[in-house]
């Protein structure tokens, strides 16, 4: 079997929903298009595990089929710790003192023993390069932030990279340029030492940092901090304000993923399809971010093939 409907991670109360929802998992080298279109035409919402297993044209065809049938298609990468990232995002965007967001700095340095936590297995092959596997999470979070403030990716470039023993990219330093003079800088790598993950959101007045934004910390918490960029006068002294927050994961990642997917599917069902805006705003936002993420990853891989040349992001 090239793909299957997966039920092992679902709570028992959710199994009845499988007549309306389809979870498709694909092996390396398989094509998801035929199975996705079959499920969508059967009036099922589809959650696929691999956002890079189809070309852009195939992905667009799947989206059009989903909209025609009034159904939702998404990949598991779009839901990785989404609750905590959303809390982080909402806090920053609602902070009136934060100022104009200018850039995002992100880094994922993954120990080889943790690769299964991001959906791949050792030994790594050429298709498991860190831009494709790890970079998608950096691109995802930054795109969600920038979309909220009206900026969209326009070009991308791989500044430096390193190959492993099997032709896979094991380290890469990348930049993505967005409209309105914003940018994402990210560094991703497979390493022998401990896994490290961080994201920093910079603005004119303050900056915010968050750790463990992809792989959950063992204690189930993710700490984010917001700092003043410059000191301000507080009475007779110069002061820098700093806030720190611990955001708990709550339910396990797999259950949160499933519940979020079901909630968004029901949004579309209750709305009667893709017409309208407010009732299905979450579905539309996540779909737009997924499409941008795919286009950015394609541009980065083209930059790599062209020795680090800056490449336009398709369809801006």
TrEMBL record:
Q: What domain of life?
A: Eukaryota
Could you tell me which Gene3D superfamilies the record lists for this protein?
Dihydrodipicolinate Reductase, domain 2, NAD(P)-binding Rossmann-like Domain
Listed InterPro entries: NAD(P)-bd_dom_sf (IPR036291)
Q: Which PANTHER family match?
A: OS10G0403700 PROTEIN, PTHR46368
Q: What is this protein called?
A: Gfo/Idh/MocA-like oxidoreductase C-terminal domain-containing protein
This protein's species is Pseudo-nitzschia australis
């Amino acid at each position: 079997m090239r793909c299957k409907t997966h039920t092992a991670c679902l709570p028992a109360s959710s199994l009845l929903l499988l007549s309306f929802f389809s979870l498709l998992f694909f092996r390396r080298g398989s094509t998801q298009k035929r199975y996705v279109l079959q499920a969508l035409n059967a009036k099922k919402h589809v959650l696929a595990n691999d956002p890079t297993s189809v070309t852009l044209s195939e992905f667009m065809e799947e989206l059009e089929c989903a909209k025609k049938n009034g159904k939702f298609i998404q990949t598991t990468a779009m839901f990785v710790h989404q609750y905590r990232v959303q809390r982080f995002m909402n806090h920053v965007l609602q902070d009136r003192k934060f100022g104009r967001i200018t850039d995002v700095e992100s880094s994922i340095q993954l120990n080889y023993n943790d690769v299964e936590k991001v959906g791949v297995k050792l030994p790594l092959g050429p298709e498991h390069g860190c831009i494709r596997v790890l970079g998608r999470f950096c691109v995802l979070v930054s795109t969600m932030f920038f979309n909220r403030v009206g900026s969209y990716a326009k070009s991308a470039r791989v500044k430096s990279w390193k190959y492993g023993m099997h032709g896979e990219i094991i380290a890469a330093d990348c930049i993505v340029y967005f409209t309105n003079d914003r940018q994402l800088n990210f560094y991703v790598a497979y390493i022998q030492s401990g896994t490290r993950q961080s994201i920093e959101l910079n603005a004119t007045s303050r900056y915010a940092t968050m750790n463990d934004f992809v792989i959950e910390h063992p204690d189930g918490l993710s700490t984010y901090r917001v700092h003043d960029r410059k000191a301000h006068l507080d009475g007779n002294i110069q002061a820098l304000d700093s806030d720190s927050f611990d955001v708990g994961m709550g339910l396990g990642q797999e259950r949160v993923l499933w519940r979020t997917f079901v909630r968004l599917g029901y949004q579309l069902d209750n709305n009667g399809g893709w017409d309208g805006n407010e009732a299905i705003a979450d579905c539309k936002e996540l779909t737009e971010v997924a499409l941008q993420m795919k286009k950015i990853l394609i541009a980065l891989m083209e930059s790599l093939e062209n020795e680090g040349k800056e490449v336009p992001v398709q369809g801006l």
